[in-house]
Amino acid sequence: MDSLKQRILQEGIVVSDQLLRVDSFLNHQVDPPLLLEMGREFAARFRDAGITKVITVESSGISIGFAMALDLNVPMVFVRKKKTVIMDQDAYVARVPSFTKGIVTDLAIAKKYLSAEDTVVLVDDFIANGDAALAIIKIVEESGAKLAGVGIAIEKLFQAGGNAIREQGIRVESLVQIRSMSAGKIEFA
Ligand code: 5GP
Question: Percentages helix, strand, coil for the chain, rounded to the nearest 5?
């Protein structure tokens, strides 16, 4: 997706060779036309997959998930991040380390919004080590819903997450793939 690549090159801040900030259009301020275009692109790639719900993670996944769900005309459900959930009979919960915050978070989704009748796609802004995505994939499995695939806006290929999911036989669609960010320079695949 060239428009997203251009925005990353123009506005992305390479914080380290592992971490990219795109606060000006995705992670803090949101650019609606760009997000709608990203949503349409994801929707086009999964149009024939029989999606009944788009799953994403708060907070930065919401604008992408919303845009995709709007185009597919299905609901979007976002996974909530909680400090720690003691036990919740009404929710599926999975514990993950946070890539950007260095803390452990519980991801939770109410059981009433995910069931064995659903075919879902998981979308998120970035994939790094894949911990968040793999935890949500477990939640989807536990619910009995069918997972059509995973959509990632910005995949960092030098971190293992995307390929770890592909190795499980799960379809992964990325809008852009970054091969390297060493010496502050972004190189796309
Ligand atoms: P993972 O669980 O794959 O290691 O990390 C995924 C989550 O960490 C994403 O949902 C995203 O919020 C955050 N993340 C990972 N890498 C980056 C990055 O380079 N920049 C930003 N802004 N967030 C990231």
Answer: 40, 30, 30
Q: Number of structural domains, the chain?
A: 1
Burial bucket for residue 68 (CB in 10 Å: 0-12, 13-18, 19+): buried
pTM of the model: 0.95
pLDDT one-digit tens code per residue, 83-99: 766 667 899 999 998 77
Is any ligand 1 atom within 6 A of the Cβ of residue 27?
A: yes
Q: b vs e for 137-158, b when ≥16 Cβ sit within 10 Å of the residue's Cβ?
A: bebbeebebbbbbbbbbbbbbe
Ligand 1 contact via 25 beta carbon (within 6 Å): no
Give residue 120's domain range: 33-178
Please state whether beta strands 53-57 and 20-21 pair in parallel, antiparallel, or not at all (unpaired): unpaired
Residues sharing a CB contact under 8 Å with residue 112, sequence separation 6 or more, in sequence order: 90
In a domain, 121, yes or no: yes
The residue whose CA has the least distance to atom 20 of ligand 1 is 20
Q: Whose CA is nearest to atom 22 of ligand 1?
A: 21
- Number of helices (H), then strands (E), in the chain: 5, 10
Specify the CATH number for the domain of residue 93. 3.40.50.2020
